[in-house]
Protein: NADPH-dependent oxidoreductase
Amino acid sequence: MKIVAFAGSISKKSINKELVNYVVNQIKGHEIKTLDLNEYEMPIYSIDRQLENGFPAEAEAFYKEIKEADGVIISLAEHNGNFAVALKNILDWVSRIEMPYLKDKKILLLSTSPGGYGGGNVMEVGLKYFTHFASGHVVANSTFPSFNDHFKDGEIIHDELKAKIDEKIKAFECALSGVEAF
Structure:
């Protein structure tokens, strides 16, 4: 199975990228491509730009990666309780290419933050967006609180959080393989 993974952030020091990298390293036996949203920078979406210029090559490329994947792993950065603007812009462009662009895609949806809520606000937004508007199938989701206290040197150091994230990874892998998770 082909999996596309990305963090919803363009920060060079993104903790969401670190979480995605951890998750990707736990998954074996699948083709995994990790995307960097910095490679998909494009003008802010507007219907006028779309009608005048068509779709940016970056939007087409991101769309192609998603369409070719069986599963998608996303770790959402929270900016003022919502998606980071870079991710929102990419999703706006891609959704105009095809909506629903995530139909039949299995999704592992994560969020993290330095705070105790672990990106819970953006998780609520993400669950609604990715299941309802984009028609993806979120098979597992989890917030990861207090990232800087619970993650060191590429590893989760909090036993309960590690077990929780590993359980979500297993559920995602089972869904991709078409078997029931424990």
